[in-house]
TrEMBL record:
Record's keyword terms, sorted: Signal
PANTHER family reported in the protein's UniProt record: DIACYLGLYCEROL ACYLTRANSFERASE_MYCOLYLTRANSFERASE AG85A, ENTEROCHELIN ESTERASE-RELATED
InterPro entries hit by this protein: AB_hydrolase_fold, Esterase-like, Mycobacterial_A85_antigen
Membrane-spanning residues: none
Protein name: Esterase
Length: 330
């Protein structure tokens, strides 16, 4: 009988000593903010939740949360393949900088929402800042407060990070935009898009998808089917109102309106690669933040739009947020 007790104690000791690992869970989150959009994009979104190593072993511990937004014409699943979130979180956890990472899928009919509220594509800004945060705080052991929430993203997700962050400073304490796009005003598109059918547009090339993505996000028109948006040209000529709407949604134009919100952030980070096609956008935003005296971490590094993202997520982004979350309490 004694030997059974000894074996049981030994087994428990082995289990207690077994290493804990980060793990990825897939959830479907219903977003009331996305209901009824004219494009028919589903309000039920796949969300990847990456839990830190100690989450399954320390039932009393609560964690800060990093929300990460993917780029256009992509998905959360693709970014989960590009960036080894669980392995990165495992490595970060070994340094006691544990957090939960949340990666929502925000793909739409034209490959992206610009993380903007639109009756056509859906209120994706509200989905991220309200619906998703509410779901995560309600289903996981989070530190459910601003001081323990960060927002980051790549490319269009970088734009979304800055946009949502400056408009919701009560929700997020720190922002990091990796290779952000769409920060400079975008002029009129090719008039050829006026002659496109919905089917041709949906199956068009990248330039086509971007044109209709911007139109449905920034110049929606519920009375203008089948796109339910106003294009930037009419009869081959630029439409001043649509051009103005595009300019108003540029990150550099928005920054001046949200200086107090940006200054309220504990930390802001932004970077750009030397051979990145969105380099002018990031440089302009960097200069705009400097102009208004908004403190931020800035890095101009060697690479292109994608090649350094996985490495920099682990070596730059996670330490950045670990420092931003330092001192946060449940």
């Amino acid at each position: 009988m004694l030997w059974k007790v000894v074996l049981a104690v030994a087994a428990l000791a082995v289990l207690a000593a077994a290493p804990a690992f980060a793990r990825t869970e897939k959830h479907v989150v219903h977003g009331p903010a996305l209901e009824g959009n004219l494009q028919g994009n589903s309000p039920d979104r796949t969300v990847y939740v990456i839990l830190p190593p100690s989450y399954g072993t320390d039932g009393d511990r609560r964690y800060p949360v990093l929300y990460f937004l993917h780029g256009r014409t992509s998905t959360a699943e693709e970014y989960d393949g590009l960036i080894p979130f669980d392995a990165d979180l495992q490595a970060a956890g070994e340094g006691s900088h544990e957090m939960i990472i949340v990666v929502p899928d925000t793909d739409t009919l034209f490959g992206g929402s610009m993380y903007t509220n639109s009756p056509t594509s859906g209120n994706f800004e509200d989905f991220i800042a309200r619906d998703l945060v509410r779901y995560v705080d309600g289903h996981f052991r989070t530190m459910a407060r601003r001081e323990a929430r960060g927002l980051a993203g790549h490319s269009m997700g970088g734009y979304g990070t800055l946009r949502i962050g400056m408009r919701h400073p009560e929700t997020f304490v720190a922002l990091y935009a990796m290779n952000p796009c769409c920060l400079l005003p975008i002029g009129a598109s090719d008039p050829k898009f006026e002659r496109m059918s919905l089917e041709d547009a949906v199956h068009g090339d990248s330039r086509t998808l971007v044109n209709f993505e911007l139109a449905t996000a920034w110049s929606p028109n519920p009375r203008n089917p089948p796109f339910y948006a106003d294009l930037s040209t009419q009869d081959g000529k630029p439409v001043p109102l649509v051009i103005a709407q595009r300019a108003a949604n540029a990150g550099v134009a928005m920054a001046a309106q949200y200086v107090p919100a940006l200054k309220a952030m504990k930390a802001i980070g932004m970077d750009i690669a030397s051979a990145d096609f969105v380099r002018p956008d990031a440089l302009a935003m960097h200069e705009e933040l400097l102009k208004f005296g908004i403190p931020h971490r800035w890095e101009d590094y060697q690479g292109d739009h994608m090649d350094r993202v996985p490495d920099r997520f682990r070596s730059v982004l996670l330490p950045f947020f670990a420092q931003a979350f330092a001192g946060a309490r449940p």
